[in-house]
């Protein structure tokens, strides 16, 4: 198969310079300024779509629509099981349109079709999970210790949600927010990455086709500083849920403080993949490749730090390097490709700068460290899978999230040293432990300060299992029951069925 051309375009956006991709109060609109952005496939630079480039004014109109829809009760008053049924229809719609959505995702991100198809399945599973959960949150009775009192906890929607998402898993990260927000009865404004808006547009079309009331779901496509910032600043937004980089997350938390809105942050990671000498060697090497290089390492939970027991380190890294050299790079429709391009030239420059700085600081480059050569790669933003060993703690390539196909190698001699090395990061998103000793696996897993620990595996995540970070990897959790609770307020309703005079204050005006 050859790379996609604009003829593969699968969404209703223009390739001629006009666009109406803002979805506000049930209508498709251009940006107030008329600005547009060209979306290009990072695998070959081909024009994929032209979308509206929203600014503050557009975001504020979308917020007003979401506020009015929430306050009208048009969605929050729909019984929770019916909201759940709607989510199940969304899941079914996604499954029917899987290929169309996957192509749009691959064209925007450059990721291989096989990966985008998996993403679409995971997205449908997310809607199914929250669809089933929606009807099960009945609240609970509380024993007030007084038979005359009826005391209960009910869960109400938090209100208007600002949802801000990144480019690496565009619709998946949006779905992890949209599904629980709708299940809880919230309304929202979604601001996807300006680089990868296409599947968000398709998703809004699906919600519209399925009859979601106007104003419940709103979309602004555009850059963060203009279209995104109002979602964290505006007093009419009750919650901002953000997935993206650490520095943006800090800005959003600071901006949200002005109106004391709820903040959920899913940020980056610098995730340790800890391999003990007694691990299944072949499985551990294979999964170290998977952990570091799938989607060219542009994964928040990428196993970018290999932490390997000294006694097997040389053999392990030799094998990792041998196999990393063989990884075939290519575009979304190249069936032979095993990994794809980076998202942009600027991002590739950033990844390369980390690698070169690491080498200058004394790391040894075992493979990679440059863009690949050849006609096939011209016009795309490819970077070779890269392995650096002999790194030192404190080097920026070890501490910072490079977010590319780069793995560093650290070694340890004892279990304590393995734990200390793995925990030596400001982040705390995910990590893995490889050993055939079940006791050691559980011991180490319990000491690692990361939100997800895989034992003898790498990368799986489940809609029913909470996802999120310790430390500076974020605040709050997505998925699982906690992922729904993020979009709810717990309210205590206390009813005294037999009101009594308390006598706390004497009635000084009353005759004896
Ligand atoms: N923890 C997770 O589950 C998870 C999942 C996916 C990606 N990520 C992280 O996302 C990052 C990569 O994504 P990115 O480069 O798109 O991140 P980013 O922080 O640059 O952008 C994320 C989103 O924020 C918007 N934005 C930027 N500035 C803003 C502002 N001032 N106000 C409001 N919105 C603003 C962007 O337009 C985009 O939509 C990595 O750090 C990765 O680890 C985390
Ligand atoms: C959360 N996850 C693993 C799907 C994507 C992270 O970038």
UniProtKB/TrEMBL annotation:
One of its GO terms (molecular function) is oxidoreductase activity, acting on the aldehyde or oxo group of donors, NAD or NADP as acceptor. The active site is at 266. Gene3D superfamilies: Aldehyde Dehydrogenase, Chain A, domain 1 (3.40.605.10), Aldehyde Dehydrogenase, Chain A, domain 2 (3.40.309.10). Signal peptide: none annotated. SUPFAM superfamilies: ALDH-like (SSF53720). The keyword Iron-sulfur does not apply. Keywords: NAD, Oxidoreductase. Residues 31-493 form the Aldehyde dehydrogenase domain. Pathway: Amine and polyamine biosynthesis; betaine biosynthesis via choline pathway; betaine from betaine aldehyde: step 1/1. It comes from the Bacteria. Belongs to the aldehyde dehydrogenase family. PANTHER family: BETAINE ALDEHYDE DEHYDROGENASE, BETAINE ALDEHYDE DEHYDROGENASE-RELATED. This is Aldehyde dehydrogenase family protein. The lineage of its organism: Bacteria, Bacillati, Actinomycetota, Actinomycetes, Micrococcales.
């Amino acid at each position: 198969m050859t790379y996609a051309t604009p003829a593969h375009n699968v969404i209703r956006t223009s390739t001629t310079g006009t666009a109406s991709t803002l979805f506000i109060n049930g209508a498709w609109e251009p940006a107030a300024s008329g600005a547009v952005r060209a979306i290009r496939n990072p695998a070959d630079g081909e024009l994929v779509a032209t979308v509206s480039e929203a600014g503050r004014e557009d975001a504020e109109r979308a917020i007003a629509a979401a506020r009015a829809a929430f306050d009208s009760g048009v969605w929050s008053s729909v019984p929770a099981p019916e909201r759940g049924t709607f989510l199940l229809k969304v899941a079914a719609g996604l499954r029917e349109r899987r290929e169309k959505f996957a192509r749009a995702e691959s064209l925007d991100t450059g990721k291989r079709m096989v990966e985008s198809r998996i993403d679409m399945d995971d997205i449908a599973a997310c809607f199914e999970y929250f669809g089933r959960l929606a009807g099960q949150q009945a609240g609970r009775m509380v024993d007030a210790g007084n038979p005359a009192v009826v005391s209960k906890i009910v869960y109400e929607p938090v209100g208007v949600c600002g949802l801000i998402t990144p480019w690496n898993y565009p619709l998946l990260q949006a779905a992890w927010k949209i599904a629980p927000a709708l299940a809880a009865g919230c309304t929202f404004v979604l601001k996807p990455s300006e680089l990868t808006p296409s599947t968000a547009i398709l998703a809004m079309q699906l919600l519209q086709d399925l009859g979601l009331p106007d104003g419940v779901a709103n979309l602004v496509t555009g850059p963060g500083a203009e279209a995104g910032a109002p979602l964290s600043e505006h007093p009419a937004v009750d919650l901002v849920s953000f997935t993206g980089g650490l520095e943006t997350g800090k800005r959003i938390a600071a901006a949200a403080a002005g109106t004391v809105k709820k903040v959920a942050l899913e940020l980056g990671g610098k995730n340790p993949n800890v391999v003990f000498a007694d691990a299944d060697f072949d499985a551990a090497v294979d999964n170290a490749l998977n952990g570091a290089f799938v989607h060219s390492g542009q994964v928040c939970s990428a196993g970018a730090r290999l932490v390997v027991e000294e006694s097997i380190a040389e053999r392990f890294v030799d094998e990792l390097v041998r196999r990393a050299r063989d990884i075939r790079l290519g575009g979304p429709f190249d069936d032979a490709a095993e990994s794809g391009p980076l998202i942009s030239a600027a991002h590739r420059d950033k990844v390369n700068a980390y690698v070169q700085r690491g080498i200058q600081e004394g790391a040894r480059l075992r493979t990679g460290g440059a863009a690949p050569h050849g006609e096939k790669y011209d016009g795309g933003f490819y970077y070779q899978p890269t392995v650096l060993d002999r790194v030192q703690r404190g080097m920026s390539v070890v501490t910072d999230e490079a977010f590319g196909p780069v793995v560093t190698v650290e070694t340890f001699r004892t279990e304590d040293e393995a734990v200390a090395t793995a925990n030596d990061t400001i982040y705390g998103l995910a990590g893995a432990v490889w050993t055939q000793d079940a006791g050691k696996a559980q011991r180490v897993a319990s000491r690692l300060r990361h939100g997800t620990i895989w034992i003898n595996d790498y990368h799986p995540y489940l809609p029913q299992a909470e996802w999120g970070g310790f430390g500076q990897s974020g605040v709050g959790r997505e998925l699982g029951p906690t992922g729904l609770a993020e979009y709810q307020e717990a309210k205590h309703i206390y009813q005294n069925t037999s009101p009594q005079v308390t006598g706390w204050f004497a009635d000084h005006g009353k005759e004896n």
